[in-house]
Design brief:
Helix 1 packs across helix 9 (293-306) and helix 10 (309-325) packs across helix 11. This protein has two domains: 1-98 and 261-351, 3-Layer(aba) Sandwich (Isopropylmalate Dehydrogenase); 112-255, Isopropylmalate Dehydrogenase (3-Layer(aba) Sandwich), CATH 3.40.718.10. The longest helix is centred in the first third of the chain and has 19 residues, at 13-31. The two termini are 20 Å apart. The protein is α/β, with parallel strands linked by helices. The chain has eleven helices and twelve strands. It binds 3-isopropylmalic acid and manganese (II) ion (MN).
Length: 351
């Protein structure tokens, strides 16, 4: 019996989460696993009503779950940073979800803005470090609001943090068994401290424990160029938190947009959290026009992470079928059906 925490969140988060849960129910029936869900009303509305962001007691409850499914966090009436740092980033840090796993896979029938590229060209995995780097919150502002003000934002890279991320990436490359190539994405020509550590750890670990995996390196700017020009070169990319954030939005676009891109915040030894990587899209709230496929894919990643292989394969097949034959477009309002009809189609195919 799995215990799944559900955070529908803000904006269109609840709408897409409902579809993911519909598919989860269908998958449990088809594959024969059981689960119970616990809903948590975290997000902008709760914050505006009560001032509460993420009570410590909720974090403690989360520690006892098997996984968390998240809709979206971000509210137009709340100053940027409060909910992002207070909920999403705090959960990543507190639950030590040190991997942000983001597949970039173009499914058949889905349109990519890349000319002459198809599903055979766009299929790679980004392993983003998820608890350190520029996101660690190190630094500060001195003499704020004066002409002499100073802002410092430091990138924290620990040998332990970098090594566990690299190890996960090497293992993921091996498990994929495709090109057996792991690309380190960095900036060794400028960030000569942080990426010196990354590069040494990458080569030492690769040499001693993963001689079967080919090691490649690309600067982050060049990575962006290759992702557009020759995405087929990539198998698995490993990178730091900030670069990973940036390149995975580019990745989301080449795989068909925010309506489809999903990711997992993974703690391999603890509780992981799965989410569509797009935002809360407040202007579309309640209209039933958002594509729920990203949330459903997040649910599929959760099933795979829980070890429910049969269920995860069923869900992915259903997603592919619906994307290739039933949806007119990935974009909000242009799918040719509503959010819940799209969810129904996937759920029906799963059973
Ligand atoms: C993401 C998001 C978050 C991040 C924001 C909302 C804090 O952009 O999950 O990629 O920067 O990690
Ligand atoms: Mn992002």
């Amino acid at each position: 019996m799995y215990r799944i925490g559900v955070i529908p969140g803000d904006g269109t988060g609840p709408e897409v989460t409902a579809e993911a849960l519909k598919v989860l129910a269908a998958a449990s029936e088809a594959s024969g696993f059981s689960y119970e869900t616990e809903h948590y009303d975290l997000g902008g509305d709760r914050y505006l009503a009560s001032g509460e962001i993420l009570p410590d007691s909720v974090i403690e409850e989360f520690r006892g779950l098997d996984a968390i499914l998240l809709g979206a966090i971000g509210h137009p009436d709340v100053k940027p940073g409060i909910l992002e740092k207070g909920i999403l980033l705090r959960l990543r840090f507190e639950l030590d979800q040190y991997i942000n796993l983001r597949p970039v896979k173009l499914y058949p029938g889905v349109e990519t803005p890349l000319k002459d590229k198809g599903p055979e060209d766009i299929d790679f995995l980004v392993v983003r470090e998820n608890t350190e780097g520029l996101y660690a919150g190190a630094g500060g502002i001195l003499k704020k609001g004066t002409p002499d003000e100073v802002a410092v934002q430091e990138s924290i890279n620990t040998r332990k943090g970098v090594e566990r991320c690299l190890r996960y990436a090497f293992e993921a490359t091996r498990e994929r068994g495709k090109k057996n190539t792991l690309t380190l994405c960095g900036k060794t020509n400028v960030l000569t401290y942080a990426f010196d550590l990354w590069e040494r750890a990458f080569n030492e670990l690769g040499e001693s424990e993963y001689p079967d995996i080919k090691r490649d390196y690309a600067h982050v700017d060049a990575t962006c160029m290759w992702m557009v020009k020759n995405p087929d070169w990539f198998d698995v990319i490993v990178t730091d938190n900030m670069f990973g954030d940036i390149i995975t939005d580019l990745g989301a676009m080449i795989q068909g947009g925010m309506g489809i891109a999903a990711g997992g915040n993974i703690n391999p030894e603890g509780v992981s959290m799965f989410e569509p990587i797009g935002g809360s899209a407040p202007k579309y709230t309640g209209q039933g026009v958002i594509n729920p496929m990203a949330a459903i894919s997040a649910c599929q990643m959760m099933l795979s992470h829980l070890g429910e292989k049969d269920a995860s394969v069923r869900v992915e097949k259903a997603i592919i079928e619906v994307l290739s034959k039933r949806l007119k477009s990935m974009s909000a309002g242009a799918m040719g059906c509503s959010t819940s009809e799209a969810g129904d189609m996937v759920a029906k195919l799963v059973t």
